[in-house]
Automatic annotation (TrEMBL), chain A:
Protein name: Urea ABC transporter permease
Keyword entries, A-Z: Amino-acid transport, Cell membrane, Membrane, Transmembrane, Transmembrane helix, Transport
Transport found in the keyword field: yes
Major location category of this protein: membrane
Entries under CDD domains matching the protein: TM_PBP1_LivH_like (cd06582)
InterPro entries: ABC_transp_permease, ABC_UrtB_bac, BCAA_transport_permease
Keyword Transmembrane: yes
Organism per entry: Thalassospira alkalitolerans
UniProtKB/TrEMBL annotation, chain B:
Record protein name field: ABC transporter substrate-binding protein
Pfam families: Peripla_BP_5
Species in which this protein is naturally found: Thalassospira alkalitolerans
Matching PANTHER family: ALIPHATIC AMIDASE EXPRESSION-REGULATING PROTEIN, PTHR47628
Signal peptide: 1-35
């Protein structure tokens, strides 16, 4: 007996709590990956990141309607199509924004902050006009909302597992794209030395556009996946933006490994403290820790040596 | 004429009206006084925007920003009420014209727009605000320029302004009846209180805790999460560990969606009622975002549900859907917002004047027999006497009303022993 609980109860809850910590970790990584690419590789502070996520969520919403209306037989697997559509939509919109706005601001990182903030406001109002001010309900296939009961107490949410798997795949994908592909090589070359990269024949403008698009596309997938755990409304993107920046800055801009390490630290800290104290307190303590560490290590957990 | 002004409810008037086709949605028992019956100079001594044929009022809600989600329904209801009042002859024979301002989910903007509506537009009444924060922001403006605000949201109480009529329930009305019901009918012994971290959930849970402890029952946990929080797995684990009989949830906004989806995914099936979930923050509006299938089986304690079977409500629901589309839903606050213009009209016609001071004097005791929620009456403290009901959530996003209090509950914004 531990306190009022039996030993089994206590260990079961510990296991559950460990699992929710890992879910939170996956959610954080998924949120932050797109931003890490854009902020880390291009130095652009993309305040519209949350709105790109919500674009993905709205695409999922449209898909769920389309499938339940016209292809009810495939409804149980519509989510996969939705994610592809979400990626495509945010990828294209991202490239458009880069082409129309960001490319004029590369030398002025603070201005990108303002400009993308403007983009986020515009997108919010567009969502509001198109989809209505209210949140929309995304109907999910039943199998995604269920749970696997291992014992009486331990019940593993399937959507948690799904997010974990998705995060894993996307992280691997991003790793391969950045470190094992020709495009990744060009991108890293551009980050390290733009002029030289241009001189050896890399189309730096195209690389920028694709990088920005990819970051936004991943945000779209994240948004699509988060319809399982969160809300879909015009301003729902704002719920994620602070945490996302926190993770990227804490991890050290430009470092993929840093983003992952930072997501892990923050998620574990938060879910552990949440369990023993209350929710608001957990947030305060987590933020205090992050601020403390950033005071000692302003560059974040991991840094990349680059020439500006 | 004098008689008309002082007793618009007179029997003869009613008899006269009996043969007339009054608006089906609102056969309010006053006669529409004609403009010529009350001269503008008499009905308006303080320079409000009243002419012989028209009177201007303000609508002040957020139609952009975070709160637009919630406030849209209130705007729609107020416009519907105004249109219906105009169709039935207006207020003191004058057509209502409304000026709509956007609070933009920003509290200082609310104050600024309230000032504009009162000082520049000289509106005779304002229907608006939703969050307590916006109401607190406009309160000094209304008191300084002596305006009248009809405020629709259920809220934490602890306020009683001479310049506000509160058409939603204050916390004790909503909470105590709900807890009594769950204790009596479901034999609940322990409660887990959970809320978003701001004044309303905290005050509400304080009242809930006091009441639960008074009944000799147990509060097995009380927790708050920041607004917009989207990860509830830890608290769900704690709930599983502590096994309360009731999860008492006051989560709001986007967090709501996350909370119910994660609750379902974690295997807490609300229809098994182990534990049972009772909320005071989920109306039909919120269910749209949460998804009916994710909250089916939960209980909500409110004064109004769209599915109420009375005739007033059937007429109200059909005119609301006629005006705003079949897909629209009506939550508790939307209905309360709909009462605002009607209560104002009744007060004006009882007072025979648009003057704010006279409306204030006339308001207590005003009753609406044709409110969609049934019957309401304005209390001396500017809140409404109303019934509290328990709704059982269905998968289609509506609630089955399974209980209502026998008597009207007296509003008690400053509850002794609960603070």
């Amino acid at each position: 007996m531990i306190g009022d609980y039996t030993y089994t109860e206590f260990t079961s809850i510990l296991a559950m709590q460990g699992f929710s910590g890992l879910t939170l970790f996956s959610v954080f990584v998924l949120m932050a990956l797109g931003l890490a690419i854009i902020f880390g590789q291009m130095g652009v502070i993309n305040m519209a990141h949350g709105e790109f996520m919500i674009l993905g969520a709205y695409m999922t919403y449209l898909c769920s309607h389309f499938f339940s209306e016209y292809l009810p037989s495939l409804f149980s697997i519509y989510f996969f199509f939705a994610m592809i559509l979400a990626f495509a939509a945010s990828f294209l919109l991202g490239m458009l924004v880069e082409w129309g706005l960001i490319r004029f601001l590369y030398r002025r990182p603070l201005d990108t902050l303002l400009a993308t903030w403007g983009v986020s406001l515009i997108l919010q109002q567009v969502y509001r006009s198109v989809f209505g001010a209210r949140e929309v309900g995304v109907t999910l296939p039943d199998w995604l909302m269920g749970s696997i009961a291992l014992t009486d107490i331990i019940e593993i949410p399937i959507n948690g597992l799904f997010v974990m798997g998705l995060t894993f795949l996307i992280t691997i994908g991003v790793y391969l794209a950045m470190f094992r592909s020709k495009w990744g090589k060009s991108m890293r070359a551009v980050v390290q030395n733009r002029t030289m990269a241009g001189a050896v024949g890399i189309n730096t403008k195209m690389v920028d556009r694709l990088t920005f698009g990819l970051g936004c596309g991943i945000a779209g997938i994240a948004g699509s996946a988060f319809t399982m755990i969160g809300s879909t409304g015009p301003t729902a993107g704002q719920l994620y933006i602070v945490d996302t920046f926190l993770i990227v800055v804490f991890g050290g801009a430009g470092s993929l490994i840093g983003t992952i390490a930072s997501a892990f630290t923050i998620s574990q800290a938060q879910s552990t403290i949440e369990f023993f104290l209350s929710g608001s307190m957990a947030k305060v303590l987590t933020l205090l820790t992050v601020v403390g560490i950033l005071m000692l290590r302003p560059q974040g957990l991991f840094t990349l040596k680059i020439r500006r | 004429m004098r008689q008309n002004m002082t007793s618009p409810f007179s029997i003869t008037r009613r008899a006269l009206l009996a043969g007339m086709a009054v608006l089906p949605a609102f056969g309010f028992a006053t006669s529409p006084l004609q403009a010529q019956e009350v001269a503008t100079a008499v009905a308006n001594t303080t320079g409000l925007a009243v002419t012989d044929d028209t009177v201007k009022v303000g609508i002040l809600h957020s139609i952009t920003g975070t709160m637009a989600i919630s406030e849209t329904g209130s705007v729609e209801a107020e416009k519907l009420a105004i249109e219906q009042i105009n169709a039935s002859g207006g207020v003191l024979g004058r057509k209502i014209e409304f000026i709509q301002e956007d609070g933009g989910s920003d509290w200082p903007t609310f104050a600024e727009k309230a000032k504009k509506l009162l000082v520049e537009d000289k509106t005779a009444a304002i229907f608006g605000c939703w969050t307590s924060a916006s109401r607190k922001a406009v309160l000094p403006v209304f008191e300084q320029y002596n305006g009248m605000l009809y405020y629709p949201t259920f809220y934490e109480g602890l306020e009683e302004s001479p310049n506000v009529i509160y058409t939603g329930q204050e916390a004790t009305q909503q909470i105590i009846a709900g807890i009594d019901w769950v204790v009596r009918e479901k034999g609940a012994k322990s409660f887990y209180l959970l809320g978003s971290d701001y004044i309303w959930p905290r005050t509400a849970n304080k009242i809930a805790r006091k009441h639960i402890e008074k009944l000799g029952l147990k509060v097995s946990g009380e927790e708050y999460y920041p607004l917009g929080h989207t990860q509830f797995n830890s608290v769900i684990n704690k709930i599983k560990l502590k096994k309360p009989d009731v999860i008492y949830a006051i989560v709001v906004g986007g967090s709501n969606v996350a909370f119910y989806k994660q609750l379902k995914a974690a295997g807490i099936d609300m229809s098994k009622e182990k534990p049972l979930l009772l909320t005071i923050s989920v109306t039909e509006d919120e269910v749209l975002g949460i998804g009916g299938e994710n909250i089916a089986g939960a209980y909500a304690s409110m004064k109004y549900f769209e599915s109420l079977p009375n005739d007033n409500n059937k007429a109200f629901v059909s005119s609301f859907k006629g005006m705003w589309g079949d897909d629209s839903v009506i939550g508790d606050v939307t209905q309360a917002a709909y009462l605002g213009p009607w209560l104002w009209k009744a007060a004006v016609e009882k007072a025979g004047s648009f003057d704010i001071d006279k409306i204030r004097e006339a308001s207590p005791g005003i009753e609406l027999t044709t409110a969609p929620e049934g019957y309401v009456r304005i209390h001396e403290n500017h809140h409404l006497w109303s019934r509290t009901r328990i709704g059982h959530a269905r998968t289609d996003g509506q609630f089955d009303v399974i209980y209502e209090t026998e008597d009207l509950i007296e509003p008690n914004p400053f509850p002794e022993g609960y603070q």
